[in-house]
Amino acid sequence: MAADTSASDDSIVKALQEYTTCDVADALVKLRVYHGGFLPGITMWSPQHQDGPTKIVGPAYTVQYATIEHGRPKRPGHYIDSVPAGAVIFVTATPTTSNALYGGLMSTRAKASGAVGSVIDGRFRDVQEQRDLNYPVFARNVGTTPPGPLFKVIAVDEPVLVRNEDGQDIIINPGDYLIGDVNGVVVLPRGLAEKALPLMAKQVVADSKMAVEIQKGMTFTEASKKFRS
């Protein structure tokens, strides 16, 4: 099922633009998602490496690579040609590989389709080409070698799994919200978005007041008790 980018979701995407990935993670912790939706090891590489105001927000369009020997057949066509406008492309592979899962032509097509960015749970290549496109790419690292003939795409717009450093499985479903900035990338489950947004708003206001008072000399403990309790 394709990631839903209907008008009913636009208000959530617009609202999330106001918050950092840390704000989203804080809200998820309050909702007892204790890993905060954080996807470890994935950082910003384009248009700059871990610098600048780049932010991406959009529903996930998921892509799953597997080894050529995997029982599921290779998906016909190329996933990049069906990316919905407004989506964040999420690419992963099982098992992990030193080959690059994603390259510059993919971003060229994604940008033309209206995608807002790509998140690669692995390596990508053509770094300068990505930056020349001014297209946001978040990834674990860079590489040079394409995935074929070792890997094939077996699924698109199906749930995918990411394991964080605590050994917890994070499931990304098509249409879940992916938010990326200089802090990293988090996934906000679609079903929690409306509950999370008011929590973000409340905490941002509280933290802003805390910052003002701390600069005046109030201790963190005092400020936290006054504004967060």
TrEMBL record:
Keyword Metal-binding: yes
Cofactor(s) required for function per UniProt: Mg(2+)
Gene3D superfamilies in the record: Ribonuclease E inhibitor RraA/RraA-like
Residues binding Mg(2+): D126
Coiled coil: none
Keywords for the protein's UniProt record, in alphabetical order: Magnesium, Metal-binding
Residues that hold substrate according to the record: G103, G104, L105, M106, R125
Highest taxon in the source lineage: Eukaryota
GO MF annotation terms: 4-hydroxy-4-methyl-2-oxoglutarate aldolase activity; metal ion binding; oxaloacetate decarboxylase activity
Species assigned in the record: Chaetomidium leptoderma
Name this protein carries in UniProt: Ribonuclease E inhibitor RraA/Dimethylmenaquinone methyltransferase
Entry keyword Lipid metabolism: no
